[in-house]
Amino acid sequence: MAKDINKDKFPEETKLKLSIFAECFREWFPVFIHNPYIKEVYIYDFFAGSGKDEEGTFGSPLILLNEAKGADCQYCKQVIKNNKTVHFVFNEKEKLKQKKMIENIKSYMNECLSVNCKAVSCIYHYENFNQMEFKDIFQIDKFQFILKNNSCGKFILLDQYGFKQVDRDIFLQLVNAPKTDFIFFISSSFIRRFKEHPYTKQYFDTEQILFDETKPKECHRLIAQYYKNIIPSNKEYYLHHFTIQKGANYWGLIFGTNHSLGMEKFLKICWNKDELSGESNCNINNDFSKGTLFYNETGTVRKQEVESDIRSKILSGEISNNIGGLKYALKKGCLPELFTLVVKQLEAEKRITRVGNLNYSSTNIHRVEQYKINLI
Ligand SMILES: C[S@@+](CC[C@H](N)C(=O)[O-])C[C@H]1O[C@@H](n2cnc3c(N)ncnc32)[C@H](O)[C@@H]1O
Questions:
Q1: Are residues 106 and 158 both part of a single domain?
Q2: Is the pLDDT confidence value at 1 over 70?
Q3: I want to staple 74 with a disulfide (CB 3.0 to 4.6 A). Which of 30, 36, 70, 361 is the partner?
């Protein structure tokens, strides 16, 4: 049985995971409450735990509620102004943990109301599934209706123990759901270690994952690639991952979105946490570390790999306009500005010209005007 995460003080690696959840939701929430096509916003935390660790550090449900206020309750005010309905839905399977979670949420909300807006009740709706088994939630008609509804924005947090909950079927339901971003935790090391075990094979076709025993650090990257391979090939979709090393184990997060802006924001968080590769807390590519003699901010292994890949794709004509190039950088786990850097280099070398709505914009790429790249 997995050790109860809420019974001790959260270790640093758990705090890193929680900080990524928090930042991810912080970026997501304002976008969705300002989206004119979205009427209702649903925030689901299906493995909510009891709300705090033994020292009182917030776990995921309280983190989400706290982020949804914004500075000076700005988001509460915007939700009212924009006439949105916001629902928080929590689930925790274990009875005692769920009871504790409800107490923690109630006392958090009461304190928030008395310190902040002084209203009688919170404008955010709060629901609780009754200790449900995670996969059973996907059988609930109301949940399926919301999941498939284009006017409902969904943020889905899946902080499972181990690896068995987000199987192929659940993953595809998440990927195919409109206006839905999700982030989940997975113990990638366990899949690698027990890849031959029938229990693991129930959930993962481990034959499809070519683990390199000499590179245990890379196991979560390979798990993320396994999920990428499941995404229908004709679908525009973005998936990125972050490896968290704890001792000899490698855990990880996987984030999915069908919108380039969602991925831009997630990548910004990852590159802020890891300036070398935007994907781990363990120097996954063995780069020279910051502060050492050979450290080169623009020349890390990952940046160089993707930069030269983009360069050859432009020169072969495979990338023939800025939108395709910016999205390609995102798909490779790099910020889109890397594409613009390559374009500038190729222009300076007189290898390409640009035609159309010329710009060097590299953020909010869904709004960027398109130009064409011609080879000289
Ligand atoms: C990693 S902990 C979540 C911690 C929580 N997110 C936090 O920040 O404190 C996973 C939680 O999921 C619960 N759980 C385990 N299996 C579950 C299942 N099949 N369905 C729902 N909850 C489950 C566990 O009791 C545990 O509290």
A1: yes
A2: no
A3: 70
Give me the chain's average pLDDT, please.
Answer: 96
Instruction: State in Å: Cα 109 to ligand 1 middle.
Output: 22
Statement to judge: residues 306 and 352 lie in one domain: yes
Do 179 and 142 share a domain, yes or no?
yes
3-state helix, strand, coil in the chain (%, to 5): 45, 15, 40
| Chain segment 11-63, per-residue pLDDT in tens | 999 999 999 999 999 999 999 999 999 999 999 999 999 999 999 999 999 99
Cβ neighbourhood burial of 241 (10 Å; 0-12, 13-18, 19+): buried
By alpha-carbon position, which residue is closest to atom 17 of ligand 1?
93
DSSP 8-state assignment for residue 182? E
319 shares its domain with 230: no
Q: How many domains does the chain have?
A: 2
According to the model, what pLDDT value does residue 292 have? 83
CATH number at residue 124: 3.40.50
Q: Residue 179 half-sphere exposure, CB side, CA atoms within 13 Å? A: 23
How many other CB atoms are found less than 10 A from the CB of residue 262? 23
- 22 and 143 in a single domain? The answer is yes
Residues with Cβ within 6 A of ligand 1?
A: 5-6, 18, 47-49, 59-60, 91-94, 97, 133-134, 159, 161
